[in-house]
Amino acid sequence: MNSPALPMSAPLVEIDWVRAHLDDPQTVIIDCRFALNDAQAGRRAYDAGHLPGAFYLDLNQDLSSPVQTHGGRHPLPNLKQLVTTLEALGISSQPATQVVAYDATKSAFAARLWWLLRYLGHSQVAVLDGGLPAWQTADYPLETQIPTPPKTGQFTPQVQTHWTVDRDYILQHQTASGIVLVDARSPERYRGEEEPIDPIAGALPNAVNQFWQTNLDEQGHFHAAAVLKGQWQAIMEVDEPIFYCGSGVTACVNLLAQAHMGHPLPKLYVGGWSDWCSYEIES
Prior knowledge:
The chain has 10 helices and 10 strands.
């Protein structure tokens, strides 16, 4: 017998729930594995073995639009095209399809899909807690077969445009009372001691650091909400936190942590440091 449906807007889901719903036509599983240093690695890993029935979405091809001079390394995807992609996977708004996203890197890329769906107004989306490593540790099955969607979905987006900000908004508001910029990158990148990806090291002026990986334990499971509330208490007391990272990916893990704690989602500066420093190069 299948376990009950997830509570509305539950941001995380356990492996046992997913295993019980592998044959549920109202559940769609999406593999989001990716590697920033090898754009084809995620697809190769998917082809080598994925959760039964899981589809694959690529960070660069599906969850982002092409890189321009400004806008960062992973601009938001063309939303019309994304909706078409979601519908092709059988995802609908009414009745709402339960989407489950996973990866193998502490939810770094699955959280991007989770946030994008929430941004499009779809609340029935959750990230697999522990990701593929948890699934494999439990010795649950994988398959190599590429699934065929049972039917085309009907997805009606309700875009939460107020959830994002751009560089101009940051420049106009960064010193305003009640606003704090929250950098999700590693402490070394935040402090400007190293920069393995972008051409300039550093952080946005007056930003504070909350490394995205501190939301999870060593096995990639999210800490309990009570633990996270202790870690985030000082930051979340402000009126308007604005989250960012290098390019709007790992900051989504920090946003996912807010949902796990039951907090409203803060604004996201999608372009992040990669967008910000693209202007510094020109100056």
